[in-house]
Amino acid sequence: MRIEKSAVESSIPDLFVKQVHRHGKRLAIVTEGGCITYQELDQLANRIAGALVANGHRHGQTVTILVEQGILQIAAILGSLKAGGIYVPLDLALGRRRLHEIVEHADSHVVLTDWINRSTAKLISGERRCVLNIEEDLEQYSDKYQATDRSPNDLAYIYYTSGTTGDPKGVVDTDRNILHNIARYTTSLNIGCNDRLTLLQSCGFSGAVSNIFAALLNGALDIHFDEGHPGGCLVVLSLLESSQHDTKSSATLEQTIHGLKTGLQQRLKKAKQAGELPAGLDVSGTATTIATTMAGMMVMGKAHFSRATLNKTVKQVVQLLE
Predict the structure, then answer these.
(1) Among the four residues 28, 117, 152, 193, which has the most C-beta atoms within 10 Å?
(2) What are the residues whose beta carbons fall under 8 Å from the beta carbon of 211, sequence distance 6 or more?
């Protein structure tokens, strides 16, 4: 069942939960970092919503999201909405000064982040805001959450313009207007639960809204590609292939190593810039060594390629070199 025009009188979380009930075991998102079903995504979003409320978030407040693009970021968006929040996604390509300005203007009580961006999140948030690392701080919260009552007229998000033509501005939109656009988009493209929608834009841009919710509110599959990471694209295609045919990944060992190395380099570089790794560390050489080892373990079935695995590996490197 797909989203209809009458859905504008509902809310984004309510319509998502309906898809969870219909398609709980189906894949909701496939990314470089792995895949997740509708039921698993709902449970993760519920934990995030519970964490927000437990840390002082109230209905109608903004929630700033500084999380790498992927499953966790979408879960943060859904969790914010379930908690009655207004999500404010930050584009990781922006400098810290600009990110700090957005956080100050949005005036969020809670900033959601992941392990790799936690240092930046703390720097741009100041002392009076709660910074939640949703990659580590969720186990204590239930995967069942009774979402707060959202009105179709509640604000859903604030997206900030680049500021290239003047002072950056916050652009807001309501659940009702988003759902109206998604219903129109659904009808014009005849989107259904058997379709796949791709996400190429950063979630920090408003153009991502259509591709995210047109998929998740129709029971379809949302596929995330990183155009700047060819190795990651190959892994996404491999995950799609294996999920459809129950066969081993079609990516070659060389492609897998390249994908791993690129992902590790990005994360190690961020950790080095944050002062968590020695200044003289050879990032490229370290990434190559680790990627080759991990690829060998994958071939033997002792490891898998996921964003969580990459982040955990970088965390272990930091701890070893402390």
Answers:
(1) 28
(2) 197, 198, 199, 201, 222
